[in-house]
Amino acid sequence: MAGKLGAICSRLISPLFNHHCRLPRFPQIHSPPPPFVPFSRRHRLPPRALSAVAMATATNGNASAAAAAAAAADSAVQEPPHKIAKVAPLLKVKKLSENAVLPSRGSALAAGYDLSSAAEVVVPARGKAMVPTDLSIAIPEGTYARVAPRSGLALKHSIDVGAGVIDADYRGPVGVILFNHSDTDFAVKPGDRIAQMIIEVIVTPEVAEVEDLDATVRGEGGFGSTGV
Fold first, then answer.
1. Which of 103, 111, 112, 207 has minimal Cβ neighbours within 10 Å of its Cβ?
2. Where's the dUTPase-like domain (predicted)?
3. In a domain? residue 188
């Protein structure tokens, strides 16, 4: 009896409940998919910027503006607040006389600074002479100055340079030793460019005494052991 009564009540109540509790139906709005934003390998944005592009594109559909905004935001995050400028060391030079000429480079990418004579000097044939520059130079720490011959003097007059090392802690006058390998005396006048000075970076490791050295393929071979 109770089962029949429950079945009858459920048949009567179910339509009434569905009628009064039915939710209104709204028309479905199909939004178009966001446009595809191509990114080449060369202009690929970082993950943070890509997520910003996706969010901005889904919001207003302006992909190009979103990409530009995301890239600007990402670069602003990655850039340090203050850029540290690299300061090149100064080559401090002191003139010791009126005849001294400051070292200069012949072109923008020249490696050497031209050194000029401050006096009249004759370099004898098959001989040598010290030519003063009347300059004192403070070589930057961590480097040394190598005094090298000028190609024009070497080719035309067989003039070479010897003992060309200027240490960073040397503060005396700089002189250039010229060797004349020709059979004719070579005359030097004040202001003549006689050599070039090249600043080179050096490494000064500590000296450690050891019982043996690492073995290499070459070993002790030297003085033409690898060929003439």
1. 207
2. 99-227
3. yes
Lowest mean pLDDT among 6-15, 39-48, 149-158: 39-48
Task: Classify residue 195: in a domain, yes or no.
Answer: yes
Domain for residue 185, yes or no?
A: yes
Q: What average pLDDT does range 180-198 have in this prediction?
A: 98
Six-digit token pair at 157? Answer: 């007059």
List of long-range contacts for 137-140, beta carbons under 8 Å, 24+ apart: 137/91, 137/92, 137/93, 137/94, 137/103, 137/166, 137/174, 137/197, 138/91, 138/92, 138/93, 138/168, 138/171, 139/91, 139/166, 139/167, 139/168, 139/170, 139/199, 140/89, 140/90, 140/91, 140/168, 140/199
Residue 106 structure tokens: 């012949």
Q: How many domains does the chain have?
A: 1
The CATH number of the domain holding residue 113 is 2.70.40.10
Q: Is residue 9 part of a domain?
A: no
Instruction: Give the C-alpha separation, 58 to 34, whole Å.
Output: 6
DSSP E strand boundaries for 68-172: 92-95, 112-116, 121-123, 128-138, 143-148, 159-162, 165-166
Instruction: Please give the residue range of the domain that contains residue 135.
Output: 92-201
